[in-house]
Design brief:
This protein has 161 residues and is an all-alpha fold. Helices cover 68% and strands 0% of the residues. The protein is built from 10 helices and no strands. It is elongated and about 60 Å long. The N and C termini lie far apart (62 Å).
Length: 161
């Protein structure tokens, strides 16, 4: 029983330390702390990184770090998908989407691409994610995207190269 209590206590202390860092540390110190957030329980790490995304200058790094935690139907994945439509975050969101270690990575991109209401910004973000992913299937999807009339002609031509 005492080992369970010790584990819970250590986990709570780690989370408290990370939360205190948000209040008292500079952006530079927080940036160096991002890799250490993997020591937290996955839900705690996701929550801490989501809070870090609110800090100007750290949102991109936090979004990239949240990628391994972005399981299907998770708040972390919702943040990445929302970032695809954000004029400031789209490239970081695309990189985070391409880096997801989950096996459904390309299926998710295909699903997002197939949504009829997907904005040109989202489609451009998905194109970048596919380029970064780089697999043969991703290249096939890029070719299909280059034919999509929802994208401006200049972007379609760029994708066709």
């Amino acid at each position: 029983g005492s080992s369970v209590w010790r584990a819970v206590t250590e986990s709570t202390q780690k989370l408290a330390m990370f939360q205190a860092a948000l209040r008292y540390c500079s952006n530079g110190d927080l940036l160096r702390l991002i890799p250490a957030s993997q020591q937290l329980a996955p839900d705690d790490a996701a929550h801490w990184l989501q809070m870090l995304m609110r800090r100007p200058g750290l949102s991109s790094a936090a979004l990239l770090a949240i990628s391994p935690l972005a399981d299907a139907q998770s708040a972390s994945l919702e943040l990445i998908v929302a970032g695809l439509d954000d004029a400031m975050m789209w490239s970081s969101a695309a990189a985070a989407l391409a880096q997801r270690p989950q096996a459904d990575r390309l299926a998710l991109i295909a699903q997002l691409f197939a949504e009829p209401q997907a904005s040109p910004q989202r489609l451009k973000s998905l194109a970048l994610a596919l380029r970064l992913e780089g697999s043969p299937y991703a290249n096939q999807m890029l070719l299909a995207l280059s034919q999509d009339d929802r994208l401006p002609k200049a972007v379609r031509e760029e994708l066709g190269r």
